[in-house]
Amino acid sequence: MGSSAALALRRADSSLNVVVVEPDNTYAEAATLKASGGVRQLFTQPENILLSQYTLEVLRELPEVFGGPDRDLYVGWRQNGYLFLALPNEVEMMRQHFDLWTRHGVKVEWLTPEAVQEHYPVLRCDDLGGAVLSPDDGWLDPASFLRLIRTVASEEGSVYLSDRVLDIELTKGSARVRLQSGRRIASEVVVNAAGCWAPQLSRAVGMPVPVEPMRRYHHHVIGLQPFEGLPFIKDSSGLAIQALSPGLLVGLVDFSAPGGFDSPIDPRYFESVVWEPLANRMPSLERCRVTHTGTGFYDQNRLDGNAILGNWPGHLEQYYIACGFSGHGLMHALGMGRGLAELIVHGRYQTIDLERFSYTRVLENAGVPERGVR
Asked: CATH for 2-74+141-210+304-364?
């Protein structure tokens, strides 16, 4: 998110001095490298649909957007599509979503349970009422995507400092950032894009956000057959299934779990939470082997599960936040960065109107959650 904002700021105004303070250039604990890399248009908030469409547009035009002499443009893009499954009692809502997606230019196909079974025989379908396939969607390699954005941002003039922000002092029209090294940076504008660590910095300047780190697990599973042709599957149980050679990457997030970096790791999470719905949807995986379980954190917005973007007009106008992406950050980073740049340089959004994701809704406790999807 920080690199996307830096790149967009320099492209909006090449005279700007943009500094990115990065405490860990390996990004080992950041959400990005632990992400699935999915990019989907199947949201119910129009802003999220448009943000995903912008990312897909960039992926189609990588040489034009990020091209350069001998630059490696590999991002591991796999356009296998997304498949949202619906139980019979969910069909009416999914039909409403289908109409919404169609109105917003999303290429979607309505599939009967019989059609799902025919196309994806590995799935159990006798309990389904239908499904929606978005064939233009897919997933990429998060590490390669981050590398490309950071490389281009650096080449186009953004300066990266290996340091950690300890404190932000705000005065009218300016800011001073104190770093762990002892260095202080004077700036006209500060953007807090620190992910799960953003709330701590934001509280310190008097702009609290309802965001906390929420643990999520991802399990690499191998079965008795290949899964290469599968789309990214989202089950009504919350189960997410992604083909990742030589098996699957599986996750089921418990959104009711308490947040915090100190939340304990449950070594039996797969057996107690994931295995039953996975075996129910893919019966061949009743006998499977978990080769690896990883864990990371969402910067979960407890208000509504959507991003908080922008400043606090009339109070902290030189301080901007970009956090609370709740698992959507990687797929929306380019659009969010562009939106931040428009807001900072021009004072308003010029492409996608992201005003509904502003800090105002936090002050008013007026969430804009997704409906029936996450």
From this structure: 3.50.50.60
